[in-house]
Queue: 4 jobs
Job 1
Amino acid sequence: MITGSATTVDSLSWQEQLATSIRDPRELLQLLELDPELLEGALAGHGDFPLRVPAAYLQRIEKGNANDPLLRQVLPLGTELLDTPGYSTDPLEEQSSNPAPGLIHKYHGRVLLIVSPNCAINCRYCFRRHFPYGDNKPGRGEWQQALDYIAQDSSITEVIFSGGDPLAASDRQLQWLVEQLESIPHLKRLRIHTRLPVVIPDRITDNCLQWLGDNRFHTSMVIHSNHPNELDDSVDAALQRLKKSNVTLLNQTVLLAGINDAQDTLERLSERLFECGVLPYYLHQLDRISGAAHFAVPDQQARQLHQNLMTSLPGYLVPKLVRETPYAPHKVPL
């Protein structure tokens, strides 16, 4: 375990852990005993998309290993500033599907609410690293436009909480929003897309479980884990609490070069997820967001990996290999 005032998580609330996340590349390199030569590139990448790493996640990273698969997901690099053809600041063209502040409507029957503009961790491959959160962070008084939009479209049966990370919002705010949605009769399902149970497991509090379990919806949670090393005992315990509260647990993984683009890694990830009560859901090809081209895995390699997984794992442990394409009516299988 990494120790130090900035990284001690014992007895800290999840809010305190969120507030004291590592945000300085110098501190990150020092705590992990990494080569100071990495600093120049880290500062450059940090200037474009800030570093943010909670201590609970930092403790799972191997000291002195610049190639640690968890570190590579969060360490800024100078290569993020390169202009790569085919990569853009809005690869999914979400801003054209943003009919009300805080609401994205891309697919039939479901809408996505930007519940919080904040994340507990800044993943370097994030497809919303350039998203205009300033225009999409309504307060309680401003949510009515999004709620009216949902109420007026009876084809919408599912609401997805996203962000940022929706669990970065307070339980009080989340419970209020769920109560507003419960009054819309055609809604049937609530889905939460979040990385917080993985990066700050203490976020799964009694208050969180109360609003998750005490509503009329069929509730599911899609976590985001890319590597089995992310799923330590503390994460397992948080996920088991969610499962006992009748929350359906799924996982999305992004295929990332040098991190999880190996059959053994993906096999271990699926097996570990299942031990934690989570079913693999999607294996995403990288969204072509500016700054993340170095994570790209060729489609041919991705297909071969997926074929190998179908051979080596039972079908329920094999995630669907997909790409998200602007204006397509659904995720596109590869």
Note: Confidence is low (pLDDT under 50) at residues 3-7.
Job 2
Amino acid sequence: MSSGGDYRFCPQCAGPLAWLSQLEDGGPKERLRCAACGFTHWNNPTPVLAAVVECLDREGQVLLARNAAWPGRFFGLITGFMEAGETPEAGIARELLEETGLAAAAAPTLIGVYDFQRMNQVIIAYHVPACGEICLSPELAEYKLLAPAEVRCWPAGTGQAMAQWLRSRGIEPQWLELPKP
């Protein structure tokens, strides 16, 4: 997605949006704005929830899943968008249940918050101990279970959360080499 999304017209008056500079608290700032009504498209990052899923009924193995829309066979954390009216902890428990059929066996605990500018997202990552039968939603193509020491972390976004969780368990993360885009 580009730095302004795909927004071309004002949602208030349907006038064209243009990159216009305006004085803000931090000084002049160029943003997509409507010259006709003054609407500003802020393009703030989207909060995304992520779970390091520790399967308590599978000897503490970590669940990684492959999104059906992803090319190749990359496996990552369970992620999803927070919905209006829910806490991040409730949101990640909901996403886990919807996408995998697994129930959180204890309250999710915050691992950290991570910058993911490439997708204009802020990732809020949790450790979620879980139990149950794995039943993937159509959004996920496949999963794998790994002992924590076997997980190889990816260098961006949720991979940083996985690395931090592994370190909290006394495991020094091993890193994947990703091909350059």
Note: The mean pLDDT is 93.
Job 3
Amino acid sequence: MLRTHRIAPVVAIAVLAAAALATAGTAHAATAHTPAAHTRAALDLSCSQSYLPLPDPACTPGATNPDVTQDTIDDTICVPGYSTSIRPSTSYTNRLKVQQIAQYGYADTDTADYEEDHFIPLSLGGHPTDPKNLWPEPRYAADPSGLTSTDKDTVEYKLYRAVCNRQVNLVPAQQAIATNWTTALSVLGLS
């Protein structure tokens, strides 16, 4: 005979423990990976394509992660796998990408044609989930310069290496890429 009076308290404890873990995880996730953790102002703007290959600075000025400073780079960005460990879920970035493609008024609305890019990259201490640091960067050349998201990725990697190799400090690298990623390397004397 099954003694449910002994099993019920064990099940109740397990359910309560699971609920507590789920609630704690949800609270952390809401803080770290959802738009609710940030101002909605960035999502309420209409954005201009006239700045391409840069984002509209009113919509995407960039935002930094407060956990990443010059003093913490050896424990954060310069640790292999750091960016992957804080990268937001694709469910979050895909939802944001759709909203931002509409805000930018792109005629091409195929999400595969855009990278939901961290303007200040995670590898340079960019904020992982703040909409002010994410934008739908075209994967194709969207202006006469011919530059693409792949070109920006190359600049990001060179800046990351320079910061971790102590050739340049973190904040100047963040400022240079947020000002104009196409000139960031030359501004910092790295090209």
Note: The helical segments are 4-33, 82-86, 90-104, 149-164, 170-180, 184-187.
Job 4
Amino acid sequence: MADTLKPRPQYRNIHVSQIVAYRLPPAGIVSILHRVSGVLMFLLLPFVVWLFDVSVSSEVSYERFRAAFVVGVGFLPGWFLKLVVLGLIWAYLHHLIAGLRHLWMDATHAVTKEFGHQSAIGTLVLSVLITLVLAYRLFF
């Protein structure tokens, strides 16, 4: 019986040093960025809670909140806080759009190579464009 079994193909993982040279398709990039954006939002959750708390507690705390983005907080300059918030904005937008993309594919069973490629490019473009629009509003 052992003679009738086909040999399994040998797969091997790439080494960490090969990641930069490895060309992922757009769907792979979106998948990795979906995970990265989720981790980023999770790690910065205390910052988001602080932002929310300071912005809605009182008028005085709201003014302190607004001043933080101009003058900064402690040793962190205001532009750096804006950059962190911009990173959070991108993470939220990318995670939302990529999640909607996955829900659409699950609900409609639209899992073709072409749809995966086009929707991945659309996800990347849409999340970056909306982030740039909000960056303009945040910095200017």
Note: The CA atoms of residues 1 and 7 lie 13 Å apart.
